[in-house]
């Protein structure tokens, strides 16, 4: 099968389409004929050698497609079903992929939109679970305009939380459409948040980094009320929890988001699509930043 890979670290130019053996699903897994696969910031971190030292490597942790082989003891889907989910093998940007966690694609979604969901929904749900975000909570999301921030807003609102989100002014209407009260980030952010919530907030989720953990700690009343997805060094310095999948993933979110989508309580991100062979251009665009929505590779 054809797959995205690289045999040396570097810029987007090191990416290539390689031939790999067809993967086989293990117990509890399914193999799909991939129709679309998500592109994430972790992809360019891997490509730059910032995550794994081994070479060669493949890319891709989320995909959507059609089930074409079942692993042992799989009884909840059938060959020919449309599914989306996560691949623990990290090789989902390919013609075939094994999904370790999966769910039926909501009927209203196409493959590209479904492929944009698993990583963002799992990441946002994991952080909200770790924060204990529930009904009546006042939640501040720093860096709310991207795919993870947008998922966090909508999932928190669905839980009954009040959400304030930071973003550039050009993204404020987008945040409002998701159910958040927007504020601009940068100097004076704390004052702008307190203008909306005079007593501060109960919880804060840092999606973007930018060195704002001291402000979030102040607004949320202590480091125990803050989780960051983006500032590992700052988390260690300030005693804030850094959320990663190492402590367990919120894979239950993949099976839950479909009902929210079909009931109109969760709007998937817009997608910008590229062919599998256009993966280098997707990386160039993603690394430049300020991409609203999700970059997706379309296969076939």
UniProtKB/TrEMBL annotation:
<dbReference type="InterPro" id="IPR020843">
    <property type="entry name" value="ER"/>
</dbReference>
<dbReference type="InterPro" id="IPR051603">
    <property type="entry name" value="Zinc-ADH_QOR/CCCR"/>
</dbReference>
<feature type="domain" description="Enoyl reductase (ER)">
    <location>
        <begin position="10"/>
        <end position="297"/>
    </location>
</feature>
<dbReference type="InterPro" id="IPR011032">
    <property type="entry name" value="GroES-like_sf"/>
</dbReference>
<dbReference type="Pfam" id="PF13602">
    <property type="entry name" value="ADH_zinc_N_2"/>
</dbReference>
<keyword id="KW-0521">NADP</keyword>
<dbReference type="Pfam" id="PF08240">
    <property type="entry name" value="ADH_N"/>
</dbReference>
<dbReference type="InterPro" id="IPR036291">
    <property type="entry name" value="NAD(P)-bd_dom_sf"/>
</dbReference>
<dbReference type="GO" id="GO:0016491">
    <property type="term" value="F:oxidoreductase activity"/>
</dbReference>
<protein>
    <submittedName>
        <fullName>NADP-dependent oxidoreductase</fullName>
    </submittedName>
</protein>
<dbReference type="InterPro" id="IPR013154">
    <property type="entry name" value="ADH-like_N"/>
</dbReference>
